[in-house]
């Protein structure tokens, strides 16, 4: 089965101009059944590094609905590493579905107060874990940093191998690590990046710098920057928030594309922005490939009635439970 699927632009978003657009999705959400999307790729070089260091324990950080923690748990399940997760906030008497899956995959959970969590690797909980376990390999929150981006550069190589016809790619951003990795690959065409966070205007430069540190073909920082379009105004209210307009878009999109489920935090916001720009005739590329970064497990943090893809998600998420 091909991982590149055509997108039907919802009828309410058909271009009012005479520009014609082709949009397709690279279904990263269908790769790696247990750990779909970008997070698996972000973990690969960390695992290699941990093996090289002969670490026995790998630890990371995440919120109670984190896609990163979920992928971390599923990816480490089949390795000999002991997995530890520092969870943001006190653990509730009832674990979230994400944390239930993590525990079932053998991850040891360490709760941390929100203020301690913010200190990252210099938090008290990290000290405690290091004291308990000795040599722990730490992966930053979200799997970010140079090694995370490196895994996404590899991913771009795989995607470009399948794609020979699109003049632009588009992807969602949180930390921007995935975007930087994709941008750094010489086969990646022009890249449109949509931040899911409020106030991310400064992130463009960070993405360019991280990508530039990974380019293998000697591109200058200006050349890397010219290949990137970055949007900080598509967050629809902020991280993990949904505007009414976004909810309406998802409902329309789900009717037109019942099998192309989008997640509520990242991919839906990016595609909403793309469809709006196409409708206005403002989108600069004729043939665009959107890279689906997964995250469908995140729907479990919302009432099922909010999820217009629920009949589709249910099938795939039941298998995971
Ligand atoms: C984490 C995540 C992103 C953002 O990835 P970054 O590398 O942090 O920019 C995008 N989409 C989904 C579905 C994610 O889970």
From TrEMBL:
<comment type="similarity">
    <text>Belongs to the ACC deaminase/D-cysteine desulfhydrase family.</text>
</comment>
<dbReference type="InterPro" id="IPR027278">
    <property type="entry name" value="ACCD_DCysDesulf"/>
</dbReference>
<dbReference type="GO" id="GO:0019148">
    <property type="term" value="F:D-cysteine desulfhydrase activity"/>
</dbReference>
<dbReference type="InterPro" id="IPR036052">
    <property type="entry name" value="TrpB-like_PALP_sf"/>
</dbReference>
<feature type="modified residue" description="N6-(pyridoxal phosphate)lysine">
    <location>
        <position position="39"/>
    </location>
</feature>
<feature type="active site" description="Nucleophile">
    <location>
        <position position="66"/>
    </location>
</feature>
<protein>
    <submittedName>
        <fullName>Cysteine desulfhydrase</fullName>
    </submittedName>
</protein>
<keyword id="KW-0663">Pyridoxal phosphate</keyword>
């Amino acid at each position: 089965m091909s991982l590149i699927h055509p997108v039907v632009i919802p009828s309410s978003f058909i271009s009012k101009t005479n520009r014609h657009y082709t949009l397709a999705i690279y279904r990263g959400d269908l790769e790696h059944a247990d750990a779909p999307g970008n997070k698996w790729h972000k973990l690969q070089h960390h695992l290699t590094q941990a093996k090289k260091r002969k670490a026995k324990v790998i630890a990371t950080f995440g919120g109670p609905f984190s896609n990163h923690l979920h992928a971390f748990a599923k990816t480490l399940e089949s390795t000999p590493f002991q997995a530890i997760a520092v969870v943001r906030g006190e653990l509730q008497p009832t674990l979230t579905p994400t944390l239930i899956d993590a525990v079932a995959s053998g991850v040891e959970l360490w709760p941390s107060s929100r203020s301690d969590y913010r200190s990252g690797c210099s938090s008290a909980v990290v000290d405690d874990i290091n004291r308990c376990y000795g040599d722990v390999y730490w992966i930053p929150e979200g799997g970010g940093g140079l090694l995370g981006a490196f895994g996404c550069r590899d991913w771009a190589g795989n995607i470009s191998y399948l794609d020979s016809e699109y003049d632009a790619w588009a992807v969602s951003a949180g930390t921007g690590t995935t975007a930087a990795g994709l941008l750094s690959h010489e086969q990646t065409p022009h890249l449109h990046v949509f931040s899911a966070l409020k106030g991310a205007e400064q992130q463009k430069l960070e993405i360019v710098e991280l990508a530039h540190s990974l380019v293998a073909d000697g591109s200058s920082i200006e050349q890397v920057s010219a290949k990137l379009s970055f949007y900080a105004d598509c967050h629809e209210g902020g991280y993990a928030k949904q505007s009414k307009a976004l909810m309406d878009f998802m409902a329309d999109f789900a009717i037109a594309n019942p099998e192309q489920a989008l997640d509520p935090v990242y991919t839906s916001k990016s595609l909403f922005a793309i469809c709006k720009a196409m409708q206005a005739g403002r989108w600069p590329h004729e043939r665009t490939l959107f890279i689906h970064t997964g995250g469908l497990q995140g729907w479990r943090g919302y009432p099922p009635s909010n999820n217009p893809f629920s009949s589709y998600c249910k099938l795939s998420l039941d298998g995971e439970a």
